[in-house]
Amino acid sequence: MVNFKNLIIIRIFIAIILVLTSLSHAVAKDTLSHSYATAFPSQSVKKNDATKTQNNAEKSVPHHKGFWDNGSIIQFMEKDNAAASSQQRHRTGMSASALGSAWPEIRLVPKDDRIFGTISGLRTKLEKHGFAFTLTYLNESLGNISGGRKRGFTYSHQVVMGTDLDFEKMLGAKGLSFHMLGIQRAGRNVATDYMGVTSLIQPQEDYGAGGNVLYKLVYMYFEQSLLNKKLVIDFGRMPANMKFGTSYLGCYALNMITCAHPSGLSNVTKWRSWPFSQWGIMARVNPGAHLYAQAGIYEVSPTEGGRAGFNFSFAQDGFVIPMEVGWQPEFGKQKMTGHYKLGGYVDTSDHPDPFTSVDGRPKLISKLPGKTERQRGAWYVGADQMIYRYGKAANQGIILYGLAGWNMGASLPNQSQYTLGIISQGMFPARITDAIAFFWTRQVVNRKITRMQEMQSDMEVPLLGGVSKPQTSFQVLELTYTAFVSPGVKFFPDFQYIIHPDANRVYPNALLAGFRLLAQF
Fold this sequence. Notes:
This protein is α+β, with helices and mostly antiparallel strands. It has a single domain (4-520), classed as Porin (Beta Barrel). It is built from eleven helices and 19 strands. The strands form two sheets. It has a 16-stranded antiparallel barrel with strand order 1-2-3-4-5-6-7-8-10-13-14-15-16-17-18-19. A two-stranded antiparallel sheet has the order 11-12. Strand 17 (473-486) and strand 18 form a beta hairpin.
């Protein structure tokens, strides 16, 4: 049963949606005479332009030219419109992201970047009728070559299977689409096998929940675009942070603390990420001037979809309410793109305090249960900015990346996360999709957990988390290279240096080496 507090939260969310809708409608009305004529042409104009573009392309570009023809690459990567639709964005730079089709906001890989291509035109015909699908194999294999608990090598993989239905093309339902995606995971965890004893640090982004089942549902939701895509509403089963606090640039790294969101804010929280799913609804408004605002409300589910993700029961324990505002500008004649965001979430479910008991004393002293924390959450600020451009492709330049986040709750495992990165893509004219990236991250453990472990150590009892010394913080330095081997195949050599595995000084700093292999069919 939904209690009074949850009813108030639902009303607040509805009010947010109404305000966003009104704002979008007002902006759309004010800019109708100018902006729609340029940025949002009529359907007939779009169709004519698309037909002309296709005819011109067919005349000017021979069919035998391959993916590595520079003109073909520039054709779908030369623009980077901050207000672009997802269809435009997947053709203008997301092709170079590490996850490719596995990235939740970019459901289709570029048409020339698949091992099987268009399958003799079949894929193209299906997409014209509103049906698209993706199949991706992702392998992340890493070895601990120095430091840590012991040396060793592990393998893990993720198979992504998804489909998208465009009901506007199928049924004439304007702006309505459906998206479904699931994964299959298997393998071993280098963190707990060789580096330390806890999974607080996860060097393999593709390892974790979703293993040992044939198909783990990640999301299944409807998307409705309104006001020429100035307002987009999603409803269905999806992770609460799938489109909040994320950046595909983070997935130039392998470590989960960077790819694709700040794990220090989401680890062991109800602000869930891949591959968990929750009932939820979110709305995003794009009023223009490269601005956007989005908010959502998601259930805190005791089942979280079950082992395979298909438990659709609605027995919520509260709600997670994420919000985010952002600015996505372009600077100068060379269009130096940037993405700036500020956001956070509130979790209304109840959680026990790890240190303080119901009577206010430490739990180890009182021997009583922890006091109940009625609400918790986090907030974050993030940015990336291109500072130098090598060429016309969307990400062809030097990009600086940064993110900082802080948890607001006694029951969360982490206190804060700070991440900095630099990406250089397309420095070699003949390899404009290749990139080299370096990231640094520091996470701080919740001080209440540290205090509990310190007290447990003094009393000579087993420590919380199974560690042998209190946890404080850790750092990760990661260097990776993105190499496009052939259409649909990318290879990523990777090195990670972990300072203080297990967030303490029990084991020496660890040096990991390995690779990611991505195959898109």
